[in-house]
């Protein structure tokens, strides 16, 4: 059946289907190994792209089809081909939690530090999506845990933003900078405090996060937690740094005085 489909597409000169996928993309999407083999035998371009610059290897990575991905790589598919948004097959495999494809791509020369248009590395993607095994694998194979995006956010910032507590723990244990600064001078602690994730806040404190670090607008994480009524965060901060109670009390008093003045 695979052969009949492949022969039909080829005999009708079907370079691209209406949805922008070439026959090789379709074979990769459906894990049709025999069809992909026939198409490649008949000189189908291995790195043909869709309107979004997705190759068949991108599609195989998305679907987790290791056999097709290996066949494409053996036929010299570009492991670092960039889609319109800059995503490589490795980025996509990380996003979809396809560990076997990640392993295969790295063995065939995929760049572990490739960046998207917004500056995301594969580790950024795995960290945000909570793909623990992939994050560990990338770190074990030399991924830099402190690469900033165009907004200055490291994988630790994104893990905190996505409430990925276990990923935060792994990144910190592997030397991620606990007080890395994003564009607005936000640290991961500022992000965790705003979202009210006391578990991440405690982890950051345990690894030496500066409780008095300020954003561009001179807010500490405690100011943000108090502003957002994140009581568990302020309680955690006071437990680790008793002097924080004065900061919180002073900030609350200031907010109340401003509110009364405005009335």
From TrEMBL:
It holds the Pfam family Ank_2. Coiled coil: none annotated. Signal peptide: none annotated. This is Uncharacterized protein. The lineage of its organism: Eukaryota, Metazoa, Ecdysozoa, Arthropoda, Crustacea. InterPro entries: Ankyrin_rpt, Ankyrin_rpt-contain_sf. Keywords: ANK repeat, Repeat.
């Amino acid at each position: 059946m695979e052969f009949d489909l492949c022969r039909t597409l080829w005999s009708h000169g079907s370079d691209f289907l209406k949805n922008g996928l070439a026959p090789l993309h379709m074979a990769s999407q459906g894990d049709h190994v025999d069809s992909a083999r026939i198409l490649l035998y008949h000189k189908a371009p291995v790195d043909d792209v869709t309107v979004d610059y997705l190759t068949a290897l991108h599609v195989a990575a998305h679907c987790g089809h290791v056999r097709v991905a290996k066949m494409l790589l053996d036929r010299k598919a570009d492991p670092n081909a960039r889609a319109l948004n800059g995503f490589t097959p490795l980025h996509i495999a990380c996003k979809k939690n396809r560990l076997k494809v990640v392993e295969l791509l790295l063995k065939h020369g995929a760049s572990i530090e490739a960046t998207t248009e917004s500056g995301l590395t594969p580790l950024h993607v795995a960290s945000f999506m909570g793909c623990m095994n992939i994050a560990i694998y990338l770190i074990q194979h030399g991924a830099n845990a402190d690469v900033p995006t165009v907004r200055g956010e490291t994988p630790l910032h994104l893990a905190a933003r996505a409430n990925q507590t276990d990923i935060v723990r792994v990144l910190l244990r592997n030397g991620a900078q606990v007080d890395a600064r994003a564009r607005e001078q936000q640290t991961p602690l500022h992000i965790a405090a705003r979202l009210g994730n006391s578990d991440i806040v405690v982890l950051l404190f345990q690894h030496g996060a500066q409780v008095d670090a300020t954003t561009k607008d001179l807010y500490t994480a405690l100011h943000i937690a108090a502003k957002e009524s994140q009581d568990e965060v302020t309680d955690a901060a006071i437990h680790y740094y008793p002097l924080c109670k004065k900061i919180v009390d002073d900030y609350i008093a200031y907010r109340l005085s401003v509110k009364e003045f405005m009335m």
